[in-house]
Amino acid sequence: MAKPKLALYWASSCGGCEIAVLDIQEKILDVANAFDIVFWPVAMDFKYDDVRKMEDKSIDLCLFNGAIRNSENAELAHLLRAKSKALVAFGSCAHEGCIPALANLTTKDAILKWVYKDSPSTVSNNGAVYPQTHTKMPEGEIEIPEMWETVKSLDQVIDVDYYVPGCPPQPFQIWNVIEYILSGKPLPPKGSVLGADEKTCCDECPRERKEKKIKKFFRPYEILSNPNECLLDQGIICMGPATRSGCGALCTKANMPCRGCYGAPPNVVDQGAKMVSALSSVVDSQDPNEIDEILNQIVDPLGTFYRFSMAHSILKRVDKI
Amino acid sequence: MEFEPKIVAFLCNWCTYTGADLAGVSRLKSPANIRVIRTMCSGRVDPTFVMKAFDLGADGVLIGGCHPGDCHYAEGNYKTLRRAHMLKKIMRKYGIDEKRLRLEWISAAEGDKFQEVTTTFTETIRSLGPLDWRKRIGKGDRTEHTVAV
Questions:
Q1: With an 8 Å Cβ cutoff, are B86 and A279 in contact?
Q2: Residues of B in contact with A112 (CB under 8 A)
Q3: Contact, A4 vs A63, CB < 8 A?
Q4: Which of A66, A77, A63 is nearest to A13 (CA)?
Q5: Which pLDDT tens digit goes with each residue over A35-90?
Q6: pTM of this structure
Q7: Domains of chain A (ranges plus CATH)?
Q8: Phi/psi of residue B96, each to 5°?
């Protein structure tokens, strides 16, 4: 019997998800034995045309990481959707937008202006040169992808079968997912989140929790935190209460607050809104002025609460001013 | 056509909703722009509700609860107070005028205050104009990759 076909693709991502796949270590050999890898640009030489020539639905499993932030990302998303039986939004970028989606806190113009004109490392003798989608060269016209105004999660562009959250997904969870698929057991219902658990990060965190009453917020470098007590109890903003479990509370075990990369817990639509709710409950004041004073200590609330889920939030981006 | 604000009002069962009832039976005229959703407590109003209202086309959101100290569940309204402050902070970052969210304490006996709040809030939103969030963030999604700076 022919081996099932596996494709891996990276759209707008850092490549960490690809490394996480390799971090399953020697089990990668089992993957190579079990699957026929037909497309994996980061590791092997394939051309997009190879994919175009495949028959529809001929790829059994496609692990797609990266957000959709330009026309190339979108084109490949549509292409791989057509060619794949099961398509997985793999990692936080494909799942909820992740770090690339923080671009939704500003505009495309502002980003390009900074990168190609204003940033201190940009030196140009003849004014800013911005990338153009089409450029005429002596050999003919060349084309590069068009950057989008708004970064999107994968499921905002194409139909997605499963989600594997995490920035990156933890290798043991990746192996769980692959092992499950290889076992031949019936696949979970469409839309399921795989490789994660059904509670919040706090559930896995070994720190001791007490009743939370916060008068002052600290950034991690501003305080020597007690390694046994809940970080949020100590006034360090920890996204644990609004984040899905599954990672094993790695960050809090290393004395850093949860950043929220596993995304919203089950039945939560908007991770940031849940964090607003959770934090508001524990601020220790009933006086409007004092409340403002305490809340003003939170630096960059939008970027903190939506660090990994901006694209997937209800409001999706800031207004384009 | 003249802009008619759409306002979603989350009113707590024990005070403001009853206050709205009182305004009604007292025949106090209040604007028809208010769409009331009854919640058991203003503390039940999840920030998600407010964001969803804005996303789905609300121009303003009113949250009504019991006066401080009067909450039927002891301190739900204090949580709402803090939440509203945090929400306004977040809204500013999103580029939504914070005046589009209003938190008011209206007791079951204050039908007249309900009338006053809904009337003035509707006027505030009318002067701010439509929010039209989805259209607003979709606007200018250029297909061309050229930048004029």
A1: yes
A2: 147, 149
A3: no
A4: A66
A5: 999 999 998 898 999 999 999 999 999 999 999 999 999 999 999 999 999 999 99
A6: 0.92
A7: 1-196 (3.40.50.700), 201-305 (no CATH)
A8: -105, 130
